[in-house]
């Protein structure tokens, strides 16, 4: 328990979501279908995040995923009423808790002042529209496996991206930098609800060292 309390608020919520998912005995169903091809970076594990460069790149200001979270948003409020210590497989209480978390995450608040900003941010690609050769639309997610191997993160941790130039289909779940113009737009898809949208002016492979 002490180790759990030392986690950041969003990592606590992710942990709770995974516990709920395990207790419900639910499969991820269609979400896994888009990840049948192995990711280019096979050394990444579910939950791995990308290290920022900490430097501007031309006209784009680098931001982190934490910058997408309003300072006054308190995701820990769920822990006041949730008790998962005695849940068993297929426990209906787990499904109820998971549904509550999902509903709150899907309406998570965003940072309005980011609208119109020219930014760059690292993340992983979850395809939404592909012709088998290229990906024309995707979700950018903050850690490996999000929306595919584990439930989607909050809406303020998902970015709906339409790149100016489609990216290779082989970049499914690949680590990338997206450089573009941020917008505030709630976009719902089978893979999750995004609180942000982005015109991907340039999408490039992430070539920093793997996380440790």
Distance between the termini: 24 Å
Q: Which oligomerization state do the chains in this entry correspond to?
A: single chain
Largest sheet: 5 strands, mixed, barrel
Supply the CATH architecture: Beta Barrel
Order of strands side by side in the largest beta sheet? Answer: 2-3-4-7-6
- The chain-level structural class is alpha+beta
CATH topology: OB fold (Dihydrolipoamide Acetyltransferase, E2P)
The CATH homologous superfamily is termed: Protein of unknown function (DUF3299)
Could you characterize what this model shows?
The chain is of the alpha+beta class and 212 residues long. The chain is built from three helices and seven strands, in the order ααβαββββββ. Helix content is 17%, strand content 28%. Strands 2-3-4-7-6 form a five-stranded mixed beta barrel. Helix 3 (92-106) links the parallel strand 1 (61-62) and strand 2 (118-130).
Overview features:
3 helices; 212 residues; alpha+beta; OB fold (Dihydrolipoamide Acetyltransferase, E2P)
What is the gist of this entry?
By secondary structure, the chain is α+β, with helices and mostly antiparallel strands. It has one domain: OB fold (Dihydrolipoamide Acetyltransferase, E2P), CATH 2.40.50.870.
């Amino acid at each position: 328990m002490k180790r759990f309390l030392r986690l950041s608020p969003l990592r606590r919520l992710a942990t709770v979501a995974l516990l709920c998912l395990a207790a419900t005995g639910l499969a991820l169903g269609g979400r896994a279908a888009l990840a049948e091809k192995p990711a280019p970076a096979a050394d990444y594990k579910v939950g791995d995040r990308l290290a920022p460069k900490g430097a501007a790149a031309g006209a784009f200001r680098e931001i982190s995923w934490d910058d997408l979270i309003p300072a006054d948003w308190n995701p820990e409020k769920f822990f006041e009423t949730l008790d998962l210590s005695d849940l068993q497989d297929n426990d209906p209480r787990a499904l109820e808790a998971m549904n509550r978390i999902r509903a709150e995450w899907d309406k998570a608040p965003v940072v309005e002042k980011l609208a119109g900003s020219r930014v760059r941010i690292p993340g992983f690609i979850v395809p939404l529209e592909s012709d088998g050769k290229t990906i024309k639309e995707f979700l950018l997610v903050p850690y490996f496996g999000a929306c595919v191997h584990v439930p989607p993160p909050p809406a303020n941790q998902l970015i709906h991206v339409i790149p100016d130039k489609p990216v290779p289909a082989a970049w499914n779940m690949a680590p990338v930098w997206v450089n573009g113009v941020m917008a505030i737009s709630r976009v719902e898809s089978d893979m999750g609800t995004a609180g942000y949208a982005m015109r991907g002016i340039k999408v490039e492979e992430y070539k920093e060292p793997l996380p440790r």
